[in-house]
Design goal:
Layout (H helix, E strand, L loop, with lengths): L9 E2 L4 E3 L6 H9 L1 H6 L8 H17 L2 E12 L4 E11 L2 E8 L8 H16 L4 E7 L3 H9 L3 E12 L2 E11 L16 E2 L4 E3 L6 H9 L1 H7 L8 H16 L3 E7 L6 E8 L8 E8 L8 H14 L11 E7 L3 H9 L3 E11 L5 E10 H6 L3
Parallel strand pairs: 5-6, 13-14
Antiparallel strand pairs: 1-2, 2-3, 3-4, 4-5, 6-8, 7-8, 9-10, 10-11, 11-12, 12-13, 14-16, 15-16
The structure holds coenzyme A.
Length: about 375
């Protein structure tokens, strides 16, 4: 391996980026046989020591060519004497454009090493390589990668269709960019479905085990009647896609979805979501809900809605969202939904006339409700 003389060493005191070394080989092999590396990257499968050796041997040539700047990552918990912790690099597209890629050894994940390594490389590429814009792409569903991109200041730009190559197939992806003048801090608030509970219901994030009852809820006649023209998942493939994408709303600070679960057996009972965060201060949002047919008429939704409103109106210091207002819309004639809204303290504020198309093709008014934080605090909701 003969690297150019000017391969830099970049460090923040804990995490160091340096040229790859032969001593990194075993750590690199361990990283690439790991399930998450296989799932989210295009490394060969099965992966062999020969693959690791070939990758290592090619690093010096890549540096010589100027096509990319690949670094090994070293950190205190890294593998073996070289403390190999992963790899990070930027592919040079010319004209100040680059694409970042990173992968960690499983032994150091979740300790902020990727985030630190990405920041070190971004700073160096903007300051010393004249980069203007760095792009990030990940296979759809790779939450850990999305989280690293979010934490280092990338702006999420959307979902791509069948553009991510992986061992002979092309998968859906996510992409984002960071420009030289952007801060390396999150651009949005990450909204998590934090766990909420009272004696009656438990609220949590969506899991793969919820599929059957989630789909039953969306396919039920009453749900179809009122929500049938909204593109909720109605088959297994759509459910899996929705599950993979659920954290996009969290990362962009635009929506958050809770599952209403039975406190005894964790059975899916329904969904409550907050969406349409209106202002830059995220002070107002809309709520939507639906319950499984066998959970209706038991006060389950009212209990869940009260928990969500309590969280929505609680201050950030108390772990809440600090909203001042939550609104909702219900189709004219949807008596059950409107009754839930009223019993939870919402006020009817008006109607959007003839704007809501039902599943049977008829068009009705959307009755508008809202509730203010001050009202939630004083009304017996
Ligand atoms: C993606 C990857 C590089 C992240 O490495 P890492 O060392 O765990 O990264 P960091 O510790 O700096 O940050 C990871 C963040 O993601 C979060 N995270 C990880 N998995 C998560 C999940 N399933 N859901 C939500 N957040 C998750 C962590 O909690 C952490 O956030 P926090 O510090 O705010 O708690 C690592 O998981 C990896 O090597 N994966 C396989 C290869 C890969 O996917 N590479 C990226 C290809 S685009």
């Amino acid at each position: 391996m003969r690297f150019p003389d000017d391969v830099p060493v970049l460090t923040d005191g804990r995490v160091t980026l340096r040229a790859h070394r032969p001593a990194d080989l075993e750590g690199m092999y361990e990283q690439c046989i790991d399930t998450d590396t296989q799932r989210w990257t295009s490394v060969p499968a099965p992966y062999s020591h020969e693959d690791a050796a070939a990758f290592l041997a090619s690093r010096a040539d890549v540096w010589q060519s100027g096509d990319a700047w690949p670094f090994a990552i070293e950190s205190p918990g890294g593998s073996g004497p070289s403390r190999f912790s992963g790899s990070v690099g930027i592919r040079n597209r010319g004209s100040g454009l680059g694409e970042i890629g990173f992968g960690m050894h499983p032994g150091v994940r979740g300790q902020g090493v990727a985030t630190a390594a990405v920041k070190l490389l971004l700073d160096w590429s903007f300051d010393f390589q004249g980069m203007h814009t760095v792009g990030w792409e990940a296979i759809e569903g790779n939450v850990a990668s999305l989280r690293v991109a979010w934490k280092t200041g990338f702006t999420f730009e959307g979902q791509t269709r069948a553009r991510m190559p992986q061992r002979g197939r092309v998968l859906n992806g996510w992409r984002g960019t960071l420009t030289a003048s952007d801060s390396r801090e999150p651009k949005t608030r990450w909204l998590d479905p934090v766990a909420l509970a009272d004696g009656r219901v438990r609220l949590r994030g969506l899991g793969l085990d919820d599929e059957q009852r989630y789909l039953q809820t969306n396919a039920d006649q009453e749900s179809l009647r009122w929500l049938g023209n909204i593109a909720f998942p109605r088959d297994s493939q759509a459910f899996l896609r929705h599950h993979a994408r659920r954290c996009v709303g969290s990362a962009t600070g635009s929506s958050v979805e809770w599952v209403i679960a039975d406190p005894d057996d964790d059975r899916y009972l329904g969904t409550v979501n907050l969406f349409g965060f209106y202002s830059l201060d995220y002070q107002s949002a809309e709520v939507g809900y639906r319950t499984h047919p066998d959970a209706r008429g038991r006060g389950v939704l009212q209990a869940a809605l009260r928990l969500v409103l309590g969280h929505a109106f609680a201050s950030a210091d108390d772990g809440g969202l600090g909203l001042t207002r939550v609104s909702l819309g219900a189709g004219d004639g949807n008596v059950a939904s409107q009754q839930v809204a009223r019993s939870c303290g919402f006020t009817e504020t008006g109607r959007d006339r003839q704007c809501y198309e039902l599943y049977d093709g008829s068009i009705v008014d959307l009755v508008r409700f809202d509730i203010l934080a001050s009202e939630f605090a004083t009304r017996r909701c």
